[in-house]
Amino acid sequence: MEKQKYSRRFFLGTSSMAAALALVPSGIKAFYQDLKTRLLPVKSIQTLSLIVNKKTYTVKADTRTTLLDLLREELELTGTKKGCDHGQCGACTVHVNGERVLSCLTLAAMVQHQPVTTIEGLAEGDQLHPMQQAFIECDGFQCGYCTPGQIMSAVACVNEGHTHSVEEIKEFMSGNLCRCGAYNGIVESIQKVAR
Amino acid sequence: MSETTSYSRRNFLKTGGLLSGGLVLSFFIPAGAKRFVPDADPLSNAFQPNAYLNILPDNTVQVILAHVEMGQGIWTTLPMLIAEELDCDWSKVTVQHAPPGKPYLHTAFGLQITGGSSTTYSEFDRYRNAGATARAMLVEAGAKKLGVSPASCRTENGYVIAGDKRASYGQLANAAAALPVPQKVQLKDKANWKLIGKEKNRLDGKAKSDGSAIFGLDVHFPGMLIAVVAHGPVFGAKVRSFDASAAKAVKGVRDIVQIPTGVAVVADHFWAAKQARDLLQIQWNLGPGEAIDSNSLLEDYRRLANEKGLVAEQTGNAAQALAGNVTSIQAEYTFPYLAHAPMEPLNCTVKISDDHCEIWTGTQLPGGDQQAAAKLLGLPAEKVKVNTTFLGGAFGRRASPTADFVLEAVEIARASGKFIKMVWTREDDMRSGYYRAAFLHKVHVGLGANGFPAAWQHSIVGQSIMNQYTLFGPPDKSKPDESSVEGIKDSAYLADVPDKLIQLQSPELPVPVLWWRSVGNTHTGYVMETMIDELAFAAGKDPVAYRNSLLKSKRHLAALNLAAEKAGWGKPLPAGHYHGVAVHESFRSYVAQVAEISIQNGQLRVHKVTCAIDCGLAVNPDGVKSQMEGCVIFALTAFLYGEISLEKGRVKQRNFHDYKMVRMNEAPAIEVHIVDSNEQMGGAGEPGVPPVAPAIANAIFAATGKRVRQLPLQPSDLVKA
Questions:
Q1: N or C, where is chain A less crowded by C-beta within 10 Å?
Q2: What does the pLDDT average to over B685-693?
Q3: From CA A150, how far away is CA A157, in angstroms rounded?
Q4: E strands of B487-588, at which residues?
Q5: What is the pLDDT of residues B32-82, one digit of tens each?
Q6: What per-residue string of b and e applies to B371-396 under the rule 16 or more CB within 10 Å gives b?
Q7: Nearest CA-CA partner of B257 in B276, B237, B233, B234
Q8: Which of A12, A118, A141 sits opposite B208 (nearest CB)?
Q9: What number of CA atoms fall less than 13 Å from residue B104's CA on the CB side?
Q10: Interior CA angle at B632 toward B629 and B636, to 5°?
Q11: Exposure of A127 in the CB half-sphere (CA atoms within 13 A)
């Protein structure tokens, strides 16, 4: 059941809750803001230690920095993309402990000392991961912006064993949006690797 | 189509020295240029590597793209054209975007633009000629080196070969560069093509699958700061005053500056900038934008539809014909504003030094952006360098005639004096305008005794794109904007209708509108294809047979009948499944689609879309198929969910939770067939969009007996009549 944590519906649920909060009267909103500042770690710059793509990074960062912003701005690993910053689009998907995680909804401080894999760490040297190769061969992308997130999700989808049918693949990939509509190619890519 | 092209020596510019040896070919071919660009044009003085291809000593062939890659696949298609004629080693081809420059002006539009689904057909001759000219020069150089006559040489895979002797293109590059440019080159016969028409995997595949592809949002330099902008709550709002004291206290904030479009925060990183933006206290002068409301807008449009507009087309007397005792159908259609919502939110990086400005962004209009930035800064155009990155989707949004997002970043860099990357959040992207305009159509069609349309009266109401911008010349408000009436004015269905009147009203509103994948055809195609279906039903005819009787163009029919055949039109479907069909011509291509749907528990399910396209020659059939698939998903999203609505001038939608996209679990199976065609080449990026929604709507009618005339789809549309 651990994997359910990262299901699409979980994130759609939480982020539409956040959206709903944006619409509530200002008194409640102020209360929520207040609550948020109490619950979140205090505003401070701390030294964070992260293991990304088998390499250890020690960086000074605001403890509220998301894993996504930290990867992109501090570690200069820009392969992980920002599409919505609200867990809606999946472009920021990375692996933490081998499981897919939306890095825009994850604070960097939460994943210290845990192995994080990004799209840059998927290949073994010059040897592309079979999923990367499949995306190239099956035209699993168009503009390519959502592609790193799609590939990270696709690898997890195969590892989770959710590839028994086209419908199952589509269901378990539905957290990753592709505005260009390369869905057919993405499904083919996953089928190719799962076979 | 001419198979030879001549080049003048004057147009051949060499920049070989810049590349430490190697053959650099570039030539400006004015063929087909509609807009005269004088030599004094600022572009001609701009920094120009000025080439379509470079050959390096290591045999690498660098192809320089006059158009930009935004997902449509030209990163592969244009190199295929060069490589076909050059006979180079495909594995040694690299690709890069061109900077702004005269050689890269669109052969038909006269400015450097990627749009109108025109890249492949407009570059078909230019890029083949670029390859063929390079090959001719390499053969001449090779013949000299090998001590044989050019006629005895052949070329293959990057080598000039004579008998058992050979020399690589890389070895010959410098010698070839010193030769005169041939006045005429012979292009290959179609029968000898090795690449054109074959399916090729994309050259941007590796970079896009290993995370190394750089999009605008990925641009990163040491010392660069991040900027975010607080935009006004309504379109056209201006800052009256603001208090930044709380925002300035946020750690990491470096500057807060007022710019024409709002207040910008410049900070060390995104989180600080966004936090500070939320703390800004801004008083706005809202202006007329506050009065816009989607519901009242619709009422205004309804009223306008009954008034006399600009006449787009008129024959006979439609009003008189419809006033008589005729069977007629009247209908009103409404279409909301739509956001482009590319996956990569808009962004732009700018560095300004004393007399120079450098810009990094994903843009469909690099030359226009360069000139706009130069004008703003009071610099000559050649002092503004534009670096075009990959575009994370665009769909028209990144072809901004006002250079809006580029100028906003330039304003921030200028006001703050900092090297900045301006980033828009998804919410900024969703709410900052440049939408597909909202439209209302009022249609009244009289049926003749034969069941075919005999009188057609059509009023269209919606903001004009062309009347707002000067990109293609000064607006002429006395004439109907072609981009608002395309797809109806030139509709093949109306060619023989004796009495018709097509009118347009283009209200002027503060909401910025722009071309959105397939432009006017997004709404005109829907109206025509659902109305024709309605007429077929009224006439008691099968929708495919009815269209076959009305359409005279063999390309319409080739696409229509291929899609119908492949979809099994007229054959039994699983219980509860229904077919709908549509065919539409746009961007010089003809696309037909058959949608198979079912409605279960009030939910629409699109099971399959069978698509057929006649685009003439498909240079890369893989690419055409991908574009058709993309068009289906894009159009389905708009049909099911697409709506930007305004309340007191404020855009209600914020992110993908309330501006929904079709997800993979909702995506239909899509089958694409390409008509084997020798007709004029057409586009692929857009023409797959228009038939999707009407094909689905026509299938919904088959299931429910109800016509969907207000987009997006409402749950009530799915309840049986």
A1: N
A2: 98
A3: 10
A4: 499-505, 577-586
A5: 222 222 233 332 222 122 269 988 888 899 999 999 999 999 999 999 999
A6: bbbbebbebebbbbbbbbbbbbbbbb
A7: B276
A8: A141
A9: 30
A10: 150
A11: 2
B23 vs B137: CA distance, rounded Å: 10
**Interface-testing mutation among B664, B665, B670, B672, with chain A (most A C-beta atoms within 10 A):** B664
Tell me the pairing of strands B420-423 and B439-447. unpaired
Do B239 and B192 share a domain, yes or no?
no
The verdict on B237 and B191 lying in the same domain is no
Q: Check pLDDT > 50 for residue B6.
A: no
| ipTM score assigned to the predicted complex | 0.93
Reported pTM: 0.91
∠ CA B388-B219-B367, nearest 5°, is 20
Predicted local confidence at residue A30, as pLDDT: 58
- Point out the domain boundary residue: B172, B195, B210: B210
- Which residue of B72, B201, B210 is the best one to mutate when testing the A interface, meaning the one whose CB has the most A CBs within 10 A? B210
Residue B361 structure tokens: 């962004």
CA distance A140 to chain B (A): 9
Rounded to a whole number of angstroms, the CA Rg of chain A reads 17
pLDDT digits (tens, 9 = 90+) for B100-126: 998 899 999 889 999 999 999 999 999
- Out of B271, B345, B629, the one facing A184 most closely (by C-beta) is B629
Q: Are residues B186 and B229 in the same domain?
A: no
- Final residue of a structural domain among B176, B210, B244: B210
Which residue in the set B201, B269, B426 is minimally distant from A85, CB to CB? B426
Q: Does the domain formed by A130-194 have CATH 1.10.150.120?
A: yes
Structural domain of residue B386, as residue ranges? 216-287+346-423
Q: Most B CBs within 10 Å: which of A93, A124, A183, as the mutation test of the B interface?
A: A183
- Rounded to whole angstroms, how far apart are CA atoms A177 and B655? 13
Which run of H or of E encompasses B453? strand B453-462
Cβ within 8 Å of A, B 164-203: 201-202
- Structural domains of chain B, count: 3
Place of tokens 């008083």: B283
Output the domain CATH number for residue B380.
Answer: 3.30.365.10
Q: Which two tokens stand for residue B409?
A: 């970043």
The reply to whether B706 falls in a domain is yes
Q: Please tell me whether residues B509 and B601 are part of one structural domain.
A: yes
A118 vs B211, B343, B663: nearest CB: B211
Sheet holding A115-117, edge to edge: A55-62, A45-52, A115-117, A93-96, A99-102
Tell me which residue of B107, B179, B189, B117 sits closest to B143, measured CA to CA: B179
Residue B637 inside a domain? The answer is yes
Contact at CB, A180 and B630, closer than 8 angstroms: yes
Cross-strand bridge partners of residue B586: B589
Report residue B20's pLDDT band, with 50, 70 and 90 as the boundaries.
very low
Task: Domain A45-121: give its CATH architecture.
Answer: Roll (3.10)
3-state secondary structure of B578: strand
Residue in B with minimal Cα distance to A76: B220
Return the H-helix or E-strand segment holding B168: strand B165-168
C-alpha closest to that of B638 among B713, B529, B716, B715: B713
With a CB cutoff of 8 Å and minimum separation 6, the contacts of B568 are: none
Which residues of chain B make contact with A178, given a CB cutoff of 8 A?
343, 633, 664
Domain positions in chain A are 8-39, 45-121, 130-194
**Assigned domain for B12 exists:** no
Instruction: Check residue B11 and report its DSSP letter.
Output: G
What is the rounded distance in angstroms from the CA atom of residue B148 to the CA atom of residue B152? 7
A58/B255 Cα distance (integer angstroms):
28
